Amino acid sequence: MGEGEEVAHRQAAGPYRPLLRALRRRRRLRASLVQLAYVVALFALSVALSHIGTGPMVPATTIVPMLFALAGALVSFIAIVYSLLFLVVQWASSAYSPRLHLFRDHPLVWHSFGFFAGTIAYCIAGGLALGDETQVSLAVPAGALLLILIALALFRSLQSTALGSIQLAPTLETIASRGRLVLDAVYSTQYSERGADAGADLPPVIAEAYWKAPPRVLQQVNLPKLVRLAERAGAVVVLEKQVSEQLVERGLVARVHASTPGLSEAQILGTLTVGAERTFDQDPLLAFRLLADIALRALSPAVNDPTTAVQAVDSIDGLIRPLCTRDLDVGHVAGADGHLRVILAMPNWGDFVALSCDEITLAARDAPAVLRRLEQLLAGLITLAPPARQPPLLERMHSLGPVDVLKHEHPSH
Questions:
Q1: pLDDT exceeds 70 at position 24
Q2: pLDDT at residue 104 in the model
Q3: Backbone phi, psi, residue 246, to 5°
Q4: In degrees, to the nearest 5, what angle opens at C-alpha 405 toward C-alphas 403 and 409?
Q5: Residue 86 neighbours by CB distance under 10 Å
Q6: Residue 352 pLDDT grade (very low, low, confident, very high; cuts 50, 70, 90)
Q7: Which of 18, 132, 120 has the alpha carbon at shortest distance from 69?
Q8: Domain coordinates in residue numbering, the chain
Q9: Under 8 Å CB-to-CB from 25, ≥6 apart: which residues?
Q10: Rounded percentage of the chain residues whose pLDDT exceeds 70
Q11: pLDDT tens digits, 221-275
Q12: What's the pLDDT at 83?
């Protein structure tokens, strides 16, 4: 790439770099591979320590039974620990939302299991390697003791994390912080009155991409790769599904606008990551959905806990306020040549406002404290929002009813 082309690339792609970084594919190490790595590493460590012939030595007849006993005890330990953790996950899902899987997906959970399994492998490997020995290096039992202490520390961390996951305030804080990371990455520029780069002059549609597999949830879009493919083909790809939506069999996923063929259906679908459920990676609405779920459950007749709903609305307020002054029209993405290449399906301001207020307003008709908090949320947003974004806020403010009456009512807890 020449100097002039490089400058043009920087000028064209500069405004879109934050979005390209936010919507790149995030690959996760499979938990099974990480756990296998722990087992292999600690197995190898045990074998290596067993062959040390210098330094302080202890009788093998004492150490070998101890190692096998530790291995058996750790199996029971793992069973007890994870039985309790499964109860925690079940409780959080039933108390807050079935879509809430913060603790279940916490890296500490599968790193801990991998370490526990690796410690078992260490003990068994050491016991087998020392079967015919009379003396063994002190490093072998010292290593086992160190691993046991680390396992206990991990268990303490698991316990603290599990207890936090069933408490309201830490749960709300975690949801809000993860949602804020996504929002800050996707919506990184300030609001302006410019219109979206609408595709009025798009080339004709020459191809369409359909989902041919069983239904799955769209979790990620590898935007940098999709932009490169579209640029190479001289095309504009219009995604019809946004992240968090379900791809149904034979459902339309994308349209390709171009003058000549050059971009295949398989290439487009290859830039999508799908799964069984929504994830935080590229989903700006998931945090709002979870917080609304918590508020709705708290307002159900079976629970009747308006204070919890108010706390959920507090967290929603903290998420939506920064969006008032952010540019949400980020779905039109140019390539390095400055030409429009991808049009993403993205939530608009109305989607955020609706998810923040509408369902909770309907459920809170008998909870004045929640309605008052919603009124405060909307009043604050009206103060911050540009004029173009105020109509949906004013509409919902009017739907709350006579505010003066609400201010003189007191909730019954």
A1: yes
A2: 67
A3: -90, 135
A4: 115
A5: 11
A6: very high
A7: 120
A8: 31-166
A9: 220, 221, 222, 225, 271, 273
A10: 87
A11: 999 999 999 999 999 999 999 999 999 999 999 999 998 888 999 999 999 999 9
A12: 83
30's CB contacts (< 8 A; 6+ apart) are none
φ/ψ of residue 345, rounded to 5? -85, 110
Q: Write the single-letter amino acid at 94.
A: S
Using CA atoms, how far apart are residues 16 and 11, in angstroms rounded to an integer? 10
Q: Which two tokens stand for residue 377?
A: 């949320």
How distant, in Å, are the alpha carbons of 70, 116, 127, 274 from that of 148?
A: 9, 9, 16, 39
Beta bridge partners of 218: 274
**C-alpha–C-alpha distance, residues 214 and 197, integer Å:** 34
Return all residues near 128 (Cβ < 8 A) that are at least 6 apart. none
Name the DSSP letter for residue 326: B
Question: If DSSP codes are grouped into helix, strand and coil, which group holds residue 246?
Answer: strand
Contact 360, 295 (CB under 8 A): yes
SS3 29: coil
pTM over 0.90: no
